[in-house]
Amino acid sequence: MLRYRECVPRDVPHRHGGRAGAPGTLRRHGGVELTITETVLVFVGIPAAVIAIIYGLVYGGSAARSKRYRPGRPFNPTAVWFVANKQTTGTGASSSAPEIGAGSAAHALSGGTDSAGTADGAAAHGSADAGHGSGSGLSTVSYGETGGASDSW
Amino acid sequence: MTAGDKPAIAARPEVLNGPFTTRQLLRLDDALRGADESTGLTFSVYVGELDQPVRGFAEKLHSQLEDPDRGVLIAVSPNQRVLEIVTGHEARRRVPDRQAKLSALSMAAAFGGGDLAGGLVAGIAQLANQAGRF
Description:
The structure holds two protein chains of two kinds. Chain A has five helices and two strands; from the N terminus they run αααβααβ. By secondary structure, chain A is mostly helical. Chain B is about 50% helix and about 15% strand. In chain B, a hairpin with a 4-residue loop joins strand 2 (about 70-75) and strand 3. Mean pLDDT of chain B is about 85; it is low at about 1-10. Chains A and B meet through strand 1, helix 4, helix 5 and strand 2 of A and helix 1, strand 1, helix 2, strand 3 and helix 3 of B. Strand 1 (about 80-85) of chain A pairs antiparallel with strand 1 of chain B.
């Protein structure tokens, strides 16, 4: 059985033997002495870095997924207009559906606005119909050209 | 002419700035193609702002389809929370307005939950199922 004096190195100051000696004493026995800069780095810098990483993971991730649609929140991605791309039927799913891109859709829409003829007639009728059917939930078009349904959420 | 002729790695396509991810685009593509093939109608999906009057604007879009008579346009404005289904003269016989309204209801339910692509795919499938085989 070891006695205390045998376990402890010789130059450790005795518990009751007064103060610890020179600054090197603690380091020599495994203690760590920190300067103010080191203390700030360890106890402020590292937590701040961890917080920054978590913050980045959380909000950086949601920025990448900002496409997500939430009803009631502003959601203004580029307008898209798709029809099935019949020409790629044989080649497999190598391309996605867009045949009419957003740019051409916008172009077509602006072109359609000032074009005379059936489009304007339909628009005029649609406005009348919208005014008529806005009260009821089912505001389908009543005339023979086009049918369909409307809904909102 | 076909998409295969284009260089495989082009600039980022403009459609990716739209509301859908690539995976959702592929699902939509499948749904549209399947609906077209099984019904002989032309299904089309527009997602974006709809000018007032909404119905008239949707009909204007529909009239720009290749064959409006056989065209079924689903126009969705997530921001305005409005959905319009426009069926052409021939398509209307296959998809009566009542059935279109049913599809619109189910799509609006999905959109209300924030699921644009899922609602569209389900709605297209429902409309195509209603139109049946030609």
